[in-house]
Design a protein that fits this description.
- The chain has 224 residues and is of the alpha/beta class.
- It folds into two domains: 6-163, Rossmann fold (3-Layer(aba) Sandwich), CATH 3.40.50.150; 165-224.
- It contains eight helices and seven strands, in the order αβαβαββαβαββααα.
- The chain has helices spanning 6-13, 30-37, 51-63, 96-105, 124-133, 169-172, 181-201, 206-223; strands at 18-24, 41-48, 70-74, 88-94, 115-120, 138-146, 149-157.
- A seven-stranded mixed sheet has the order 3-2-1-4-5-7-6, sandwiched between helices.
- β2, α3 and β3 (70-74) form a beta-alpha-beta unit.
- α1 packs across α2 (30-37), α4 (96-105) runs parallel beside α5 (124-133) and α7 packs antiparallel against α8 (206-223).
- It is elongated and about 60 Å long.
- The N and C termini lie far apart (40 Å).
């Protein structure tokens, strides 16, 4: 059985059973290989923008005897996909801005039969905002520690509902800091990042700094 790192284990753990999973930016195809091994998915599409990661993915799938249940695909993000090819899409290890851009561009993801599992390396607020603006109102979130790093992982499904939220929602999301220590630590680091940004804005744009201060207070309150 393939052994995953804590980050990738958290990603794989949020995928619900499906016929086909697509892993975007697959690198070594560890997540789709694990999902095939455990029966969560019956087939997998391992996609990447570069040939070398696909070569690595092929080696992983061959090593575990899974190549006959997988497809290797050269694709720039979601551009090489169309509706109906997979029921689950994993996008992990990319920046939040990049993931958000994919969500805005691929309107065909807006279908109730599709689940998304997203793991931004930075700027989770951009991903939350893109999900919210595009009607993905069913969202679950987890944080996971790996070494000194903390990672955010989100599961989402489209409903078409765009719900009103506070300005701080994109920074807090569906985390449960009262129940999970990693969530609390993650929000504290988010608050520290926002504090630094607000301080830098004070002399340049007091209005923007004041808006950030309001958001920051909500994030601090959520950490308590």
């Amino acid at each position: 059985m393939l052994h995953l790192t804590p980050r990738l284990s958290a990603v794989a753990g949020l995928v619900r059973p499906c016929e086909t999973v697509a892993d975007i930016g697959t690198d070594h195809a560890y997540v789709p290989a694990f999902l095939l091994q455990t029966g969560v998915a019956q087939r997998a599409i391992a996609a990447d923008i570069h040939e070398k990661p696909l070569e690595n993915a092929k080696k992983t799938l061959e090593r575990f005897g899974l190549l006959n249940r997988a497809e290797l695909r050269l694709s720039d993000g979601l551009q090489g996909f169309r509706a109906g090819e997979a029921q689950a899409f994993v996008i992990a290890g990319m920046g939040g801005e990049q993931i958000a851009a994919m969500l805005h561009a691929a309107s065909w993801l807006q279908a109730p039969e599709i689940q998304l599992v997203l793991q931004p390396m930075t700027h989770g607020e951009d991903v939350r905002r893109a999900l919210r603006e595009n009607g993905f109102s069913r969202v679950e979130e987890r944080t996971v520690a790996e070494g000194s790093r903390l990672y955010l992982v989100l599961w989402a499904r489209w409903t078409g509902e765009i719900q009103p939220v506070s300005p701080a929602y994109d920074y807090i999301g569906a985390l449960c800091p009262q129940a999970r220590e990693t969530d609390r630590l993650f929000l504290r680091r988010t608050a520290a990042r926002l504090q630094k940004k607000a301080d830098a804005l004070r002399g340049k744009d007091p209005t923007a700094a004041k808006k950030l201060d309001s958001i920051l207070q909500e994030v601090y309150d959520a950490c308590r």
